[in-house]
Amino acid sequence: MARKNREEVASWDVEPEPVLCPMCERVIPDDQKDAHHLVPKSKGGKKTVCLHRICHYQIHAIFTDSQLAKKFSTIEAILEDPAVQKFVAWVKGKHPSFSASAKEPRQAFGSGRGRKQ
Question: Which CATH number describes the domain made up of 20-91?
Answer without folding.
Answer: 1.10.30
